[in-house]
Amino acid sequence: MSEEQVIIPVLGISLPIIITLGALIMVVYLRKYKNIERMAMIDKGLSPDLFR
Predict the structure, then answer these.
(1) Cα–Cα distances in Å, from 44 out to 15, 26, 48?
(2) In terms of pTM, does the model score above 0.70?
(3) Contact (Cβ atoms closer than 8 angstroms) between residue 49 and residue 42
(4) What does the pLDDT read at residue 17?
(5) Residue 52: its pLDDT value, please?
(6) What b-and-e string marks burial along 11-40, b requiring 16 or more CB atoms within 10 Å of the CB?
């Protein structure tokens, strides 16, 4: 097998895994920073429901 014939199946398997992990990490960080923002608003005495 040539090198090109080996790379294509490896990319076919690893690319969906990388995309799924990237999306999961993005969701986790978005939720984390939204929670930090809400906690800062509560700490300053504001109601977080006002800014929805």
Answers:
(1) 44, 27, 10
(2) no
(3) no
(4) 97
(5) 67
(6) eeeeeeeeeeeeeeeeeeeeeeeeeeeeee
Q: How far is CA 3 from CA 12, 13, 16, 43, in A?
A: 15, 16, 21, 58
| Residue numbers of the chain with a pLDDT score lower than 70 | 1, 52
pLDDT at 44: 92
* Whole-angstrom distance, CA of residue 44 vs CA of residue 52: 17
Largest Cα–Cα separation, the chain? 66
Distance separating alpha carbons of residues 44 and 42, to the nearest angstrom: 5
Q: Which residue has the tokens 């090198």?
A: 3
